Inverse folding.
């Protein structure tokens, strides 16, 4: 055999696509799984950014309405409309035997229940980010371990410990770990940011609910005294 042909035989494509195409089927499957997880995570991130931004605007509008003492509107599909609808329904459910404190507590419970349901919808998909962030590095590590095992197997078969024999398999293996980190790091950062934003939205609504509950309980007391006087 012509010695000059040896480099061509051991030539290896170290580009990203080359590393993927030349990888072991198991390692290749790990890479595909991680890429799918990354696409799913980014889909959740962009969807949550849009929905949480809308929820922040609704919380701001709801707070302004409550503090201004304006008329309550239960139309629309936003969080504020659902809370307002629950508040109005609880306010109309008159019980002459309950005290003002009991009335306020009942109205606030109704509003918090409506808020909880909407907050759970905002949180849908966030567990995927947490799961991907915690498991993706280990999935990538599994691909790395498998690839390195194949590299050692190649060394044993060829009885050649040169870098030309070892490097390709190790490069493919480490590429799986790199993809795992690329999936995990943004997922963890996005999860922390989004869960914090959801918490702020919830806190804003809870604060406004306390003000509105007191206002509606007071209004019911006024209406009750007026009805008794008549």
């Amino acid at each position: 055999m012509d010695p000059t042909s040896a480099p061509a035989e051991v030539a290896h494509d170290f580009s990203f696509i080359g590393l993927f195409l030349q990888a072991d089927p198991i390692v290749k499957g790990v890479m595909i799984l991680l890429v799918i997880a990354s696409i799913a995570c980014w889909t959740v991130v962009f969807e949550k950014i849009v929905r949480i931004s809308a929820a922040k605007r609704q919380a701001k509008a709801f707070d302004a309405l409550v503090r201004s003492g304006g008329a309550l509107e239960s139309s629309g599909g936003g969080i504020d409309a659902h809370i307002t609808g629950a508040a109005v329904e609880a306010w109309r459910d008159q019980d002459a035997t309950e005290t003002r404190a009991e009335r306020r507590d009942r109205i606030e419970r109704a509003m918090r229940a409506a808020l909880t349901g909407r907050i759970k919808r905002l949180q849908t998909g966030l567990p995927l980010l947490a799961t991907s962030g915690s498991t993706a590095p280990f999935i990538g590590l599994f691909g790395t371990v498998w690839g390195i095992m194949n590299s050692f197997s190649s060394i044993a078969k060829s009885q050649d410990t040169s870098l030309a024999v070892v490097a390709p398999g190790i490069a493919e293996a480490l590429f799986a770990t790199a993809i795992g980190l690329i999936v995990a790091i943004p997922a963890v950062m996005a999860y922390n940011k989004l869960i914090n934003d959801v918490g702020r939205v919830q806190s804003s609504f809870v604060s406004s609910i306390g003000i509105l509950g007191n206002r509606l309980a007071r209004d019911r007391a006024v209406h009750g005294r007026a009805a008794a006087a008549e």
